[in-house]
Design brief:
It is a single chain. Strand 10 and strand 11 form a beta hairpin. The protein is built from 26 helices and 31 strands. Helix content is about 40%, strand content about 20%. The chain is an alpha+beta fold. It folds into 4 domains: about 280 residues, Immunoglobulin-like (Sandwich), CATH 2.60.40.1730; about 140 residues, Neutral Protease Domain 2 (Neutral Protease, domain 2); about 100 residues, Aminopeptidase N, middle-beta domain (Immunoglobulin-like, Sandwich); about 240 residues, Peptidase M1, alanyl aminopeptidase, C-terminal domain (Zincin-like fold, Alpha Horseshoe). It is globular and about 85 Å long. An 8-stranded mixed beta sheet has the order 6-5-9-3-2-12-15-14, with no helix packed on it. A 5-stranded mixed beta sheet has the order 17-18-19-21-20, covered by helices on one side. Helix 4 crosses helix 5 and helix 23 runs parallel beside helix 25. The structure holds (3S)-3,7-diaminoheptanoic acid and zinc ion (ZN). The site of zinc ion (ZN) has 4 residues, from helix 3.
């Protein structure tokens, strides 16, 4: 905490210096008491003669120091320097045994970083820099050591004592206390340290690895939740098998544990052998979790497990390299989920969902004040850089290697990466070098994906030469200026494409003239490396419809002047499911943007038949996967529409989108009704992709039907709500009743209140379901600021619990744009109040919420002024954390930067 916000220090990548001392072994003893935990630490350290850093530097924050002993001698206060963040010992010998005694008030720690208490149990969170809140330590990822940890605690209050690695000893201490000693055989950076102590129960299983070795798998939860751990356990076993099969990577420990807590700043954490999870990504049964929850659990369990190799065995040299482990591990979890579905459309659906997230969140980030390269050059608070750019764009960057090098080539690169760097802390350049060297490729230009921020735009122009039967495709790239980066150099862009014939089949793609090669591939990857390049396709007998950026082969914005007819052709025929979906989105986007203008000008609104027909065909095409049809029927979101506009106008956007949904509902009501009936999933609930796809399409049809004002459709939702035997269908019915326009009419008010109350009563003891109850209301178009303030007073609301804060306040600020941008600015005030209150409790979560105003310069001047005032109010708050200060200061600098 600090008083002025000007002294927030920036750390630069270029200033990296290797540590002055290495740590070989760490021995720790914890005497766990919620009010005062005593920690004794012994470090065996040795000088790093290659470093320019001569001092022995330890980090420490918010801890009491009781003793410091160097090679057996107590250090006097004059023998070291200490401030609020560091402890520095100058002139230390080359070999050091350092003994440190500290204590921590874990029960007062509301930041959920370091050691903290949740529901009476102890948890830790050390990434990125939380270990320094436990003891003094060279808390940086390039210092890797082996750990032995002794935990002592009251036996009744804390019957379970867990840490990383293997349990080597346990027993009674007398006095009602007991102990457990853990040893982690692998060297690890301090951010992967973890301990858990408390009243927990577990589901466990012995699992046989491919090699025949048996390992113990455990999923630990609070009592009463053992009926919700099976899916997490199944996901863990699937992850282990997948990593063996796809990458030849085996679990290196004899024991692997997952522990769930309801107080957690993010999704989960990959601590070595002891993954700690937000309950949201562990607990599921059909009564409480939706299909999306099941999918989320599978991918997060996979993600954390995959970190064991990409992150833990090979880690990051410094935090600027974060995407080395995060981008790669997101790529791995995306592939895992895709492979588990098993078929081509299932994979495509997963790909489309991932692209949607990238566009909805990362593209705006890249265009706003927090824009940064995948490998950032600077930060004030590293926790602010666990972003969609580092994660999702980082994953796209890894995917581009995969696209460029192919399945085998990518695997060769991964093998070489582990061969070279197992047990090391390395950089993104090391990863790129392994990919290049394993494949004999020059990937030097590819480096720009790591160093240049901003979303590149690729402009494509096609020209058909009917005489020569040649189709000429011209591609040009440009990348807009971003904060601190005015001029960008061309990227190395893999550009997958095909050319469709009139009958929907594909032309053979032949880049050289001469004899026709009918066996030539129908889909190819062009490599765009210059600002502009031209490609000629030969033996193209008639004007083709180009299918461009197939499977979203690069994280760029593609401009091509498609006609409506071409888009309809792609939507009907493209063999590339991504481009097929994209064609539908382009048709919709075009209309929506025009309609927004009409709303602004007070003109009459109309939707053309051509669009309705194109969607009708997809909706009823039984040859298409239901999950895919649902994606096509889902219009671009209000957030995405706002991004497409020079000056965003959330109210007009909301009305225009509403109008299109209502018009589609009106025109296609018979189709929606039969789709609804045809996709019921009777019988026992199964969360697999096929069943989930059916439910998604059915519930999409339901939501459209409720845009069309009619008592019978309202009844449909009402009945579904009460009869639903799984949470997916229950929430979908409730959501339709709260979000769709006809359902918002006054005559339904009483029934809306009835279902909301019923839902609360039934699930009041299921925290994750009550989160849904808050979210559904926060996102409802009829919920205004006043109602949000009311809900904040609800007995079930708590700002201190991150999941609850996210379910109400974040949901409102980020997912209800028409209400959040209310003309009187009252929601900005609510935002400010919440950021300021959270700042005191939990700076990391506060900083996340602070980002809701990132795009403030995109709004009309009157709104901008109110947002600026809200930002300024936060920026000048006393005791602002560097987390929040960095975000609001960058946002406030936005205007001036762009005007330069
Ligand atoms: N590595 C953690 C994220 C830590 C966030 C610290 N603020 C989870 C993950 O990416 O798997
Ligand atoms: Zn991760």
């Amino acid at each position: 905490m600090r008083n002025t916000n000007q002294d927030v220090k920036t750390i630069y990548r270029k200033d990296y210096v290797a540590p002055g001392y290495w740590v070989d072994t760490v021995e720790m003893g914890f005497d766990l008491h919620p009010q005062r935990t005593h920690v004794a630490t012994r470090l065996h350290m040795r000088r790093n003669h290659d470093s320019a850093e001569k001092d022995l530097i330890l980090f420490g924050e918010d801890i009491q120091l009781h003793q410091l002993r160097l090679n057996g001698v107590d250090l006097k206060r004059s023998a070291y320097q200490r401030n609020k963040e560091r402890l520095i010992i100058s002139n230390a010998p080359d070999t050091v045994v350092l003994e440190i005694e500290t204590s921590i008030a874990a029960d007062k720690n509301t930041t959920m970083s370091g050691l903290y208490v949740s529901n009476g149990n102890f948890f830790t969170q050390c990434e990125a820099e939380g270990f320094r809140k436990i003891t003094y330590f060279p808390d940086r990822p390039d210092v890797m050591a082996t750990y032995t940890v002794m935990l002592r605690a009251d036996k009744k209050q804390f019957p379970v004592l867990l840490s990383n690695g293997n349990l080597i000893e346990q027993g009674d201490l007398g006095d009602g206390r007991h102990y457990a000693k853990w040893e982690d055989p692998f060297k690890k950076p301090s951010y992967l340290f973890a301990l858990v102590a408390g009243k927990l129960v577990c589901q466990e299983e012995k699992y046989r690895l491919k090699s025949g070795r048996k390992v113990l798998l455990q999923v630990w939860v609070e009592e009463g939740n053992l009926d919700k751990t099976q899916h997490a356990m199944d996901s863990l076993k699937n992850s282990i098998r997948w990593d063996e099969e796809r990458f030849g990577l085996e679990l290196d420990l004899d024991r692997f544990m997952i522990v769930a807590t309801s107080d957690f700043n993010m999704g989960a954490m990959e601590n070595k052998g002891l993954n700690i999870f937000n309950t949201k990504y562990v607990l599921a049964n059909s009564r409480t979790a939706t299909d999306a929850d099941y999918a989320g659990i599978e991918s997060v369990v996979g993600h954390e497990y995959f970190h064991n190799w990409t992150g833990n065995r090979v880690t990051c040299r410094d935090w600027f390299q974060l995407s080395l482990k995060e981008g790669l591990t997101v790529f791995r979890d995306q592939e895992f989920s895709g492979d588990l579905v098993g078929n081509a459309t299932g994979r495509a659906v997963k790909r489309i969902e991932d692209v949607r997230i990238l566009r909805q969140h990362q593209f705006p980030e890249d265009a706003g004040p927090m824009s940064h390269p995948v490998r950032p050059d600077s930060y004030a608070e590293i926790n602010n850089f666990y972003t969609v750019t580092v994660y999702e764009k980082g994953s796209e960057v890894v995917r581009m290697y995969y696209t460029l090098l192919g399945h085998e080539g990518f695997r060769k690169g991964m093998d070489l990466y582990f061969q070279r760097h197992d047990g090391q802390a390395v950089t993104c350049d090391d990863f790129r070098a392994a990919m290049a060297d394993a494949n004999g490729r020059d990937l030097s230009q590819f480096e720009r994906w790591y160093s240049q921020a901003g979303t590149p735009r690729v402009k494509a122009d096609g020209e058909y030469d009917a005489k020569r039967h040649v189709y000429r495709l011209k591609l040009s790239q440009a990348c807009p200026a971003t904060a601190g980066q005015d001029h960008k150099l061309p990227f190395h862009i893999p550009f997958a494409m095909g050319l469709l014939q009139q009958d929907g089949s594909e032309f053979a793609l032949q880049l050289e003239s001469g004899k026709a090669h009918p066996q030539a591939p129908r889909s190819i990857i062009l490599e765009l490396t210059q600002e502009t390049q031209e490609f000629e396709f030969h033996h193209i007998e008639h004007e083709p419809t180009p299918s461009l950026l197939r499977n979203f082969s690069a994280p760029v914005i593609l401009d091509f002047d498609y006609s409506d007819a071409q888009l309809a052709h792609l939507l009907a025929h493209d063999s590339d499911a991504f481009c097929r979906w994209e064609a539908g989105q382009r048709l919709a986007m075009r209309r929506l943007l025009k309609l927004v203008k009409s709303v602004q000008n007070g003109e009459a609104l109309a939707l053309d038949d051509m669009f309705v027909e194109a969607l009708r065909k997809t909706l009823v095409d039984a040859n298409l996967d239901p999950a895919f049809r649902e994606l096509v029927m889902t219009l671009p979101s209000e957030v995405m529409l706002a991004e497409e506009m020079e000056i965003a106008d959330p109210h007009s956007i909301h009305q225009a989108r509403r109008f299109v949904r209502a018009s589609l509902a009106q025109a296609l009501k018979a189709e929606f009704l039969s789709v609804y009936q045809d996709h019921l999933t009777p019988g026992k609930y199964k969360p697999d992709a096929v069943s989930a796809g059916k439910r998604a399409l059915k519930n999409c049809a339901l939501s459209y039907l409720l845009e069309w004002s009619h008592e019978s459709t309202y009844e449909l939702a009402y009945t579904q709500y009460f009869e639903a035997e799984n949470m997916t269908d229950k929430v979908a019915a409730l959501s339709a009743m709260l979000h769709c326009s006809s359902a918002l009419q006054p005559q339904y008010q009483a029934r809306r209140a009835e279902v909301l109350q019923d839902f609360f009563d039934e699930f009041q003891h299921e925290a994750l379901v009550i989160d849904k109850w808050f979210s559904l209301q926060a996102c409802a178009p009829s919920t205004d600021v006043k109602q949000i303030r009311q809900l904040m007073k609800h007995k079930a609301f708590s700002l201190a619990n991150p999941n609850r804060a996210r379910s109400l306040i974040f949901a409102f600020c980020n997912a209800n744009p028409a209400q959040f941008h209310a003309a009187d600015g009252s929601a900005y005030e609510l935002w400010g109040d919440a950021v300021i209150a959270l700042n005191k409790l939990n700076p990391q979560v506060a900083a996340r919420l602070a980002r809701s105003l990132d795009r403030w310069t995109k709004y009309p001047v009157a709104q901008q002024e109110m947002m600026r005032a809200a930002l300024q109010r936060v920026a000048t708050t006393k005791g602002l954390s560097k987390d929040v200060a960095e975000i609001v200061n960058k946002a406030l600098a936005m205007k001036t930067e762009l005007c330069l």
